[in-house]
Amino acid sequence: MAVLEIKNLHVSIEDKEILKGVNLKMQTGEIHAIMGPNGTGKSTLSAAIMGHPSYEVTEGEVLLDGENILEMEVDERARAGLFLAVQYPSEIAGISNAEFMRAAINSRRDEDNKMGVMEFLKKLDEKMALLDMPEEMAERYLNEGFSGGEKKRNEILQLMMIEPTFAILDEIDSGLDIDALQVVSKGVNEMRGEDFGSLIITHYQRLLNYITPDVVHIMMDGRVVKTAGAELAKQLEAEGYKGLMEELGLDIELEEE
What pLDDT is stored for residue 254 in this prediction? Predict the structure, then answer.
C-alpha cells in the first residue's frame, strides 16, 4: 500500500496565494474526489503536486510514502509513480502516441526489464479496444488535431498503459458528451485496485455517477473545508455550494461560473 499525503500546502502564483493550507491523505486502493467552485484552487493543487513551474509552493509538503516529492524534478515525480491528466493536453508534433507511451513505460523500468515491442503492442491493442479507440490513433502525433473527446480518451489510454501508483485527473469530464464520459469512466474503473489510487478533480456530480469515489473533499477558498463519503457529492448536487457554506458557517465570495 502506497500513501500520498498533502500537509499544510500553501501555493502562490504571481504573488497571489491560491492554496492556503491544504491537508489531504489517501492511499492506493482508494479513489478520492475533490469538488469545489471556480477559483478555489483545485487545478492549482494538481499543478503544484506535479511541479508546474508557474506555481510557487511557499509552505507545506507533499509526501509519497514519506518522501517529499516537492524536492524532485517533474520527471522524477512521474517516475516515482505520479500521473496527471490535464484539462487541455498539449499537442506534440513528431512523436506518435505509441512512441510516447512506450518511452514513458520504460522510463520507469530498469534496463534489464524494458517492455518489448510485441508485449507493448498487445497491451496497447487491448486498452484501445476497451476505450473504443481506432487503431490509427496510436500512430498519430501526440494529441495533434485531436478533438476534445479524443484528447480525454487518450489521457486515459496513457493512464492505463503507464499504470502509475497515483493518478490526478483534473476535470477529465470537461466538455465530454455522455457517451465519451461513459468510456472515460470505464477506463478509470478498469484501473481500480489495491495498487492504484486516484484523485479526481471535478465540478459536477455527473462524473461521480460513473466513478463512485471512496472519499469526497470539498475545497473552498484554497482549503479543504469538508471531507466525507460519496454521499457528500450528492448532498452538494442537491444543496449547492451556498447551502454547504451555510451549513459550515463559511462566508466566502464565490466566483461566477
Answer: 67
CA distance 199 to 157: 17
What CATH superfamily is the domain 3-92+165-248?
P-loop containing nucleotide triphosphate hydrolases (3.40.50.300)
Tell me the angle at which helices 148-162 and 178-191 cross, rounded to the nearest 10 degrees.
10
CB atoms closer than 10 angstroms to residue 51: 20
Task: Locate the domains of the chain by residue range.
Answer: 3-92+165-248
Task: Give the integer Cα–Cα distance in Å for 36 and 227.
Answer: 12
Question: What is the per-residue pLDDT across 161-203, written as a single tens digit (0 to 9) for each?
Answer: 999 999 999 988 888 889 889 999 999 999 999 999 999 999 8
Q: For residues 127 and 121, what is the distance between their CA atoms, to the nearest angstrom?
A: 10
CA separation (Å) from 162 to 26, 118, 198? 20, 16, 14
Q: 100-138: per-residue pLDDT in tens?
A: 999 999 988 888 899 999 999 999 999 999 999 999 999
Torsions phi, psi for 177 (to 5 deg): -80, 175
Overall pTM > 0.85: yes
Antiparallel, parallel or unpaired: β 166-170 and 82-85: parallel
Q: Which helix (H) or strand (E) holds 182?
A: helix 178-191
**Number of Cβ within a 10 Å radius of residue 45:** 29
